[in-house]
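Starch-binding associating with outer membrane, pasting as requested.
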Amino acid sequence: MQRDIKKISAAILVSLTLASCSKFLDRDPLSQISPNNAFNSENQLDLYTNSFYDVVIPGPSGNDQTPTLPFYGLTGENSDNIILNSLPSELTGNRTIPVSGGGWDWSALRNINYFINNCRTGSVNPAIINKYEGTARFFRAFFYFSMVTRFGDVPWYSNVIAADDDKALLKPRDSRVMIIDSVLQDINYAINNLDSTKASVNKVNKWTALALKSRICLFEGTFRKYHTEFSLPGSTDLLTQAATAAAQLISSGQYNLYTGSGPQTAYQELFTTASKNNSEYILARSFLAQANIYYSVNYYTISPSFGKPGLEKNLVNSYLMKDGSRLTDTPGYDTLSFFTETQNRDPRLAQTIRTPGYKRIGAAVTSAPSFTSTSSGYQLTKFVTDETQDKLNGNANPLPVFRLAEAFLNYAEAKAELGTLTQADLDISINRLRARVNMPSLSMADANSHIDPFLATAYTHVSDQNKGVLLEIRRERRVELVMEGLRWNDLMRWKEGHLLTNQFKGMHFKGPGAYDLDHDGQTDVVIFTGTRPAIPAAQYLELGVDIQLENGANGGLITVLPAIKKSFNENRDYLFPLPTQEILLNKALTQNPKW
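Structure tokens follow.
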């Protein structure tokens, strides 16, 4: 895909730096290419639609100026899952209204609409044109879905806008109900016209469109259900469509869960294999070593200059025990040592962070967590490959945009929200994910009769008859999809933004002293006050300088940035603000509530 995109005429590529909606919508994206010479062969249609991938499909890390990317990209979500050593304004309540930019970017839409309006001007077979129009409509649906999740109501444009069409350029925002209805028309067209064959994991097909439809309908269905303040209709219909799309994808048999070398490694291998064609990925971003096209997830997890990311304590606590029981039912679970808390857990924990016995891929020796690379102590390993790819821009393993596991989770959640979930539904979805790592099956009856108070305290708006099993589905979603760029939108649609205000926590330490984290007989960390002790160790952390504990010298959980108060405005922060320049240019635009 990347090489194809590089073949596209530079005239097709549009700058992403312009500020005004009108500037984007009225400019000619193909000033050097007319419909008469751009759409006369399938190859030309293919090359043009290839240009949509990089500007609409998310990349490895997020871009707050580009609304078509999930909030923090495919690997670096910064919600309540991953801790960094600095906090963005979205987590501190210090967001301001941007003058320009801020995600109000329409360049990708201008090019998509140009293609849809002009792709039939050539002499290509109509059936082939339908396929490529399906591709364009897929990307228009993806674009508008991202705009709605960010801003709510936005103007709908389905055609190229003339430079002198002030009525269109200066129109007000259309309702999100109208936008989502239009998005679903686009995605249904894509489903009906895209290829059903899997030519490449880098190209959209019928099954990719079903995956996107399931994601869109689940987001919007739950958003409308839980955000009653907006009085939005149709949540039941949307949840039904989410379940139906996921079921069609699952039952197609086109994709299968990756099982690799077995339960102890399959989940890790899924994200580290260099193969572009593993059986689970529906759409992925691929990177080409031979073309020097890389990204930096290894460097992100081992370099202190990338924010020292680490898993958050609450998420670590959310992983079940290997026998299906709950760690959080154990008295004093928050005071357990790192070694103790990581024993006999859901195998996905040890395939997501460094735990005792962890070895880098291709390495012969074990590696304990490095506090030079993680602020919480729970050092990330998901997506991390061997040491040859540790340099900046060193990774070439593909990143999933859609994978089968998400369809399983979407299906189960939608059915649970509808009140139609059965044990059989769990067995064809959630329990297949658990079976991959040899975890016990989720019992609907048991979950509903033994509701987890740890989860119930977190997710305050769940009150249906399926409360227990719905909470367990949310647990499964958080564990399975961590670092895949979906958590922010999950919290927004569930109306659980308050979770972003919790103090970031990490490992527990009793106080100053020497610690053998992995029980291999070697001291890994020495926490000290005053003069550094003469104790051989791999890492020395001065209390109050290099590490903060809840109770200082009396120990406790690591606290990250304790002096910074986290904040989330429930009446405002579920939507982003429109830039002031846009409202000045277009008097018909209104600002989002409370901004």
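Note for the archive: The chain has a mean pLDDT of 90.
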